[in-house]
Structures are given as C-alpha cells and as structure tokens.
Amino acid sequence: MENRSKRFFLGLLLISIVAALPGCSTPLTTREKAAGIGALGGAAAGGIIGSAVGHPGAGAAIGGTLGLGTGALIGDQLQGQEQKQQEQQQRIEQQSGEIAKNQALIEELRRRNIEARETDRGVAVNLPSVDFQFDSAELTPEGGGRVNRIAAVFKNQAPGRKVSVEGHASRERPDQEAYNQKLSER
Questions:
Q1: Of 67, 88, 129, 166, which residue is most buried, by most CB within 10 angstroms?
Q2: pTM
C-alpha cells in the first residue's frame, strides 16, 4: 500500500507540473510564483502527512489548497512591495536626471559669467543690478543684455522650462512704493 501511495503522489505531482507548463508562455508574476511554490509545498507536506494516516491523495489535495492560498497571499504582498520599489526607483531616476540638467545649466550660466546656484526650487540666477531707465519700465541696454544672455542659455539648455522672475524695486523715498507699483503696471 505504501508503494502505491508514493506512485499516486508522484503521479499527481507530475500531472500538476505538466498542466502548469502551457500557462508559462509569459513570465510568472511574483504572486503566481509564490502561489505555485505554496501549492507544491503544501501538496508535498499534505501527501506525506496523508500517507501516515492512509490517505495521501486527500492530504495532498488539502495541503495543496492551503499552500496555494497562503502562497498567493504572501506573493501578493511581495508583488506590492516590488511595485512600490519600482515606482520609487523611477522617481529617483527622474530626480537624478533633473539634478544633472540643473548642474549642466548652472555650469553654462557660470561659463557666461552669470551667477547661478541650485536651490530647493531649482536653479536660481542672481542679477545684483539690473537697471531700468529713469521713470520707465524698460531695462537699460546693459540690463537688457544681461537678461538676453540668460534667456539664450535657458532657451538652448532648458527649452520648455518654467522660469519665475522675482525682483525688488528701490524704496529710497516714502512714496516710492506707490510710484513703483504704478510703474510696474505699465
């Protein structure tokens, strides 16, 4: 009887493997791999335990079912972790690419004698003195030249990049703030 049980169990195992092979034309997911390992491990353990009580087939079936369920649950959790890691890796690669682009942009600006540095918000360019013509919203020729050089670098090195311009007007007189506001609206 014992020899017959072993043959039955081996036959069941062989049939399971042969039946699973046609479904393997695409790579198995982590969940599927874990479910398969759990099913085979459970069937083997169930078959051995079932042999001890005289019912190897029933033991293999019960063990395989329990192993399948447990393996699928564990595999599902592992697959979720893998997906999170892949998403994290993609974000890291994207941010590394942005950092490299920013560094190249800063180097180009510095080659053109333009003060630039990297900040949390991106690349900051400092123009300590961009002068406007008196009583005008127009830049002086020198100030316009500086702005144009910076614009050319951004156009060539970072097309499509959003640029935020911040500036401060002089407040030498008490009424200067209202005057500057009207001037900025021209």
A1: 67
A2: 0.55
